[in-house]
Model the fold of this input.
Amino acid sequence: MQFAGWEMPVRFGGIIAESKAVRTNAGLFDVSHMGRVEIRGEGAGKLLDRVLSVQASRMRIGRARYNVICDESGGIIDDCIVYRLGGERFLLVPNASNTDTVLAWLDRWTQGLESVQIANLTAETAMIACQGPNAAALLQQLADYDLSKLRPFRAASATVNGAKSYLARTGYTGEDGFEIMLTAEAAPDLWSALVKLGASSCGLGARDVLRLEAGLLLHGNDMSADVNPYEAALDRFVDPDREEYVAGGALREIRDSAPSRRIVGFSMLERGIARHDYAILDGEGRATIGRVTSGGPSPTLDMNIGLGYVQIRFAELATRISIEIRGRPTAAEIVALPFYRRSRSA
Amino acid sequence: MNPDELSYSKEHEWVRMESDDVAVVGITDFAQDSLGDVVFVELPEVESEVGQFDKMGEIESVKAVSDLYSPVSGSVLERNEALVDSPELVNDSPYEDGWMLRVAVDDDSELGNLMSASEYEAFLESEDQGH
Done:
């Protein structure tokens, strides 16, 4: 299928089998469509401090942080991961469909920081995600770096399958795993090598199932410029108390006032699958109280789950709600996020 | 792959005539493969009426909801209740265990509006080129 100008596979085998492979073994995702933007030069940290919801200039080299990019009224332009590559060298990974918007937004806040260079490396590089409980064991056979030393949200340069790579212990599936950035030319060989070692090829469909089970939001579905990070329950990724932060004023005001809606997770109590944009009704199925932003079956949990925004008084855990499925109110219940949490014993 | 003795619709349903006036209805191998993992099938009640090429129900895969269209007109005699708990039968066995409805057919001349297996395969090829 076409996605943000990229030709992407929705599935290789079946979405359920692919999801299971990631939960029990290891799966591969071609996530080259995600943006890779390098920001470097004197003032690079300052520029990102203006634009990101976290203070990039205080990150240690080799660290990665999840954050959101908000406009001046606190609306979410995109969510992304920022990596500190070096002293004044950062890598930003925005969503495919938002990369141009993010580039324009960065450009807008460069005044006084003329030595900062912004380079879009998306087309010349590739990114492969290797995710699952066996991801580390498989990847270790190809990497010259001791992966047991690379903790979650850490990244390092390494040679992987003979190719110079940037290796991050990050992902979007709720499992342990890695995202490997390397030249576009080297990517097909790495993919084949990991498949040969036993990893399953996975498509966008499984990725969407897995991230929903893990309670991870998708920009464009679960977030947009019409919602703020407090409504999206992303409070812990936002530090608005910084003078230089362009969204700080708006976000402080939002944080200090009573919210009117909030994102929730729900599971279906009756047979039926909630889908994006279905109405959320109260427990009696009368009044509309919100809208589904993502929904579908969870193969791992064997139930039907979803995310959506509801009026704040319906956001309590265990609240009975209903989802309007083809005109019929269908019972559901607010549940804790994430739906799925991996066991860390392994 | 598509059994010769069946008739096929452009909406990717098949019909097997069990007798002169009883038809079994399901979706084709192409349809189940395009949908991917089927997780929910909603079918009309027994004794309800279905019309040829009218919507008769819904089928949901992991990713999306699609409409099901009846390839014949008639009254529903039986639905495949096994699909309630095992919708994956549609994927595993679209022409046998994954059948959907048994229908008392009003007018068997309606079969003339459907395609043979070879016509259906030609139809799939022409569709494919259109994309």
Summary: The mean pLDDT of chain B is 94.
